[in-house]
């Protein structure tokens, strides 16, 4: 092998970079961390199914925003024909009242920072 | 191979992979293979193949000093040297290599030659390939870097910062990333360039298209998965963390959908194919003798490592051997019998 020192140094850098997530997670020790969003409610279903909400809640919120603010529509008809008031505070926040324990737990896990709160105030729990 | 076939065969291969991912999704017993075994397998092939190729390259000798120079070499002190075009020390060489690696300098120097009627030749710059290539590679880098949010916990601030910068347009929900758009546009250009220009079409091989289609498939499935056919990203990260901590588990907080199966299979195939493909130009640039050698052949003798000692017979030895005969035949001698010149 020619230029052994340089080649081995290069390979070492490659291995360090390629394995970054593996050793980073060892260093932080959070490899087993999984978010556990807390929901204080007696309801057992959201507007749509759980899987749908996990995947599409941001688009549904956006659609509700457009419906309420731009299209003047007040009622949302879900897939199962139940109807809901299109109202963030009156409908969503009834159950999803705690931003820190619900929203943030997954958003932090995903490294996403939704811009909802750029304008909206974080709801404060009633005494 | 006809040129249409050169495109159709690799395209069908990638579409077949998509179909395979669908099969893997439909049959639940295959899930463990698709989501756990395949990523490990392809990761090992990627790393082992990568190292193998590099060691093979490092074993090849470089017989000649062949830097591709494009400027004045180091000479007398009053002649200005082109330090990037013709580096003579390692500092200049490092600078030249950095420009090559991060900004594809030699591609920027691409020129075209055209006939402008009446046999008149016109030379000019042609930077479109450079621009498309730079846009593609940098987008790819940012996209890979953004993906670290699925593999790290907590997510490093730099990853979040770059992700927010990439989504600064705040178009649509979830935010459209600039790099997502740029990489699709750049790949489309790189593909069109291959089929639209006769010269590029002629020298393009199925493997060129395969690399393009595989990356295009990965990018397209990723963008669609983000914007339209969404999947449960918390479950995706659960899976990713379980894999990199070497405690693989399909006991996820939700279920990952078909789009993720397609994306993952394409990524795995790309990784496994990488060490055996043209994509090895990534480490290859470090091994290019035309780029990584100093233009110092007048100062330092470059010894061909595969030179063997050759038995030579010098003229002096020849004269020693045949001096008497040469003298008799009246041939001139450099040194006569008495040892005089």
Secondary structure layout:
The complex is a heterodimer of chains A (127) and B (341).
Chain A (H helix, E strand, L loop, with lengths): L3 H15 L1 H9 L21 H21 L4 E3 L5 E3 L2 H8 L3 H12 L17
Antiparallel strand pairs in A: 1-2
Chain B lengths: L2 H24 L4 H28 L31 H14 L1 H4 L2 E5 L5 E5 L2 H19 L10 H10 L11 H19 L1 H6 L2 H22 L5 H12 L13 H16 L7 H4 L4 H4 L22 H14 L13
Antiparallel strand pairs in B: 1-2
Please provide a written account of the structure.
The complex is a heterodimer of chains A (127) and B (341). The model of chain A has no long low-confidence stretch (mean pLDDT 89). In chain A, 51% of the residues lie in helices and 5% in strands. Chain B has 341 residues and is mostly helical. Chain B has two domains: 302 residues, Fumarate Reductase Cytochrome B subunit, CATH 1.20.950.20; 31 residues, no CATH class. Chain B is built from 14 helices and two strands. A two-stranded antiparallel sheet of chain B has the order 1-2. The radius of gyration of chain B is 29 Å and the shape is elongated. The interface between A and B is large, with 40 and 46 residues.
Helix content bin of chain B? 55-70%
Beta-strand proportion of chain B: under 5%
What is the CA-based Rg of chain B, rounded? Answer: 29 Å
- Overall morphology of chain B: elongated
From the 3D structure, determine the CATH topology of the largest domain in chain B. Answer: Fumarate Reductase Cytochrome B subunit
**Structural class of the secondary elements of chain A?**
mainly alpha
Ends distance of chain A:
73 Å
Series of secondary-structure elements of chain A, N-terminal to C-terminal: HHHEEHH
Biggest interface, CB < 8 A = A-B, 40 and 46 residues
Domain count of chain B: the total is 2
Largest sheet of chain A: 2 strands, antiparallel
User: Helical residue percent of chain A?
Assistant: 40-55%
Question: Number of helix segments of chain A?
Answer: 5
Strands of the widest sheet of chain A, in order across it, are 1-2
Low-pLDDT parts of chain A are: none
Largest sheet of chain B: 2 strands, antiparallel
* Highest-level CATH class of the largest domain in chain B: Mainly Alpha
Radius of gyration of chain A: 22 Å
Q: What is the molecular shape of chain A? A: elongated
């Amino acid at each position: 092998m020619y230029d052994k020192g340089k080649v081995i140094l290069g390979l070492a850098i490659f291995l360090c970079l390629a394995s970054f997530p593996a050793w980073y997670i060892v260093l932080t020790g959070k490899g087993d961390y999984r978010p556990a969003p807390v929901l204080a409610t007696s309801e057992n279903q959201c507007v749509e199914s759980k899987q749908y909400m996990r995947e599409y809640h941001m688009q549904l919120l956006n659609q509700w925003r457009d419906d309420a603010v731009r299209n003047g529509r007040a009622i949302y008809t879900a897939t199962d024909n139940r109807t809901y008031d299109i109202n963030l505070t009156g409908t969503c926040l009834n159950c999803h009242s705690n931003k820190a324990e619900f929203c943030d737990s997954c958003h932090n896990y995903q490294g996403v920072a939704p811009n909802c709160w750029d304008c909206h105030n974080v709801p404060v729990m009633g005494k | 191979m006809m040129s249409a076939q050169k495109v159709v065969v690799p395209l069908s291969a990638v579409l077949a992979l998509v179909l395979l991912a669908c099969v893997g999704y439909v049959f639940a017993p295959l899930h463990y293979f698709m989501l756990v075994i395949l990523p490990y397998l392809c990761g090992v092939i990627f790393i082992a193949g990568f190292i193998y190729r590099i060691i093979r390259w490092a074993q090849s000798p470089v017989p000649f000093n062949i830097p591709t120079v494009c400027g004045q070499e180091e000479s007398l002190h009053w002649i200005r040297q082109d330090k990037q075009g013709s580096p003579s020390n390692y500092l200049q060489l490092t600078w030249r290599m950095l420009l090559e690696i991060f900004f594809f300098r030699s591609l920027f120097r691409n020129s075209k030659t055209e006939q402008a009627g009446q046999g008149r030749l016109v030379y000019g710059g042609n930077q479109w390939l450079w621009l498309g290539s730079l846009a593609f590679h940098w987008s790819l880098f940012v996209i890979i870097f953004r993906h670290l949010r699925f593999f790290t916990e907590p997510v490093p601030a730099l990853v979040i910062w770059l992700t927010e910068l990439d989504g600064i347009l705040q178009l649509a929900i979830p935010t459209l990333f600039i790099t997502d758009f740029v990489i699709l546009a750049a790949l489309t250009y790189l593909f069109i360039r291959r089929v639209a220009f006769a010269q590029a079409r002629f020298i393009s091989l199925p493997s060129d298209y395969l690399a393009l289609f595989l990356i295009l498939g990965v990018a397209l499935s990723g963008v669609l998965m983000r914007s339209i056919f969404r999947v449960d990203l918390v479950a995706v990260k659960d899976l990713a963390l379980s894999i990199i901590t070497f405690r693989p588990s399909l006991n996820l907080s939700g279920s990952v959908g078909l789009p993720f199966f397609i994306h993952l299979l394409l990524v795995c195939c790309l990784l496994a194919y990488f060490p055996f493909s043209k994509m090895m130009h990534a480490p290859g640039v470090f091994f290019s003798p035309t780029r990584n050698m100093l233009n110092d052949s007048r100062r330092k003798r470059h010894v061909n490592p595969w030179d063997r000692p050759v038995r030579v017979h010098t003229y002096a030895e020849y004269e020693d051997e045949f001096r008497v005969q040469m003298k008799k035949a009246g041939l001139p001698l450099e040194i006569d019998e008495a040892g005089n010149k």
